[in-house]
Amino acid sequence: MTSWPFTYGSVPVCLLLIVALCAGTSHPGDNLCSSALITSCKECLRRGPQCSWCFQEDFLDGAAAWHRCDLRVNLLRKGCGPEFTEKSDLKVEVNGAVSGTQVSPRDVSITLTPGAEASFIVSVKQLPRYPVDLYYLVDVSASMQENLDHLKTVGVALSLRMAEHSSDLWLGFGSFVDKPVSPYINVHPTKINNPCSDYAIHCRPAHGFHHVLSMTGNMSEFTRVIKRQRISGNMDTPEGGLDAMLQAAVCQRAVGWRPEAKRLLLLMTDQPSHLALDSRLAGIVIPHDGLCHLENNVYTGSTRMDHPSLGQLSDKLLEKHIYSIFAVEKQQYQWYEELVRLLPGSYLGKIGFFQSPNLIDLVVDSYKSLLAEVTLLVSVDDEVFSRYWTSVSPICPEGATAKGQSCLGVQPNQTVYFNVSIGLHSCPDHGADEDILAMVRPVGYNESTTVRIRSKCQCRCGSTGRCHENDRSPCGGTTDGGGQRHVPLQGLVNESKWNCRAEGSHVDCSGRGVCECGKCVCERSRLGTIYGKYCEKDDFSCSYKDGLLCGGRGVCVLGECVCEDNWTGHSCGCPISTATCQTPDGSLCSGRGACVCGQCVCDNHRFSGDFCERCPACQSSCQSHRKCVDCHASHGLRQHEAGHCNHTCESDVFYISDLMSGGNWIQCMHISGDHCRYWFQTSSESGRNQLHISTRAECASRGRLVGTFLSVCALTVLCGLVVVAVSRLLLQKRGWSPGDAGQDGEYHCTSKELSFIPTSNEKTVTYRRDRSPDHSLEMTVQVKMPLGEPWQ
Question: Can you give the pTM of this predicted structure?
Answer without folding.
Answer: 0.49
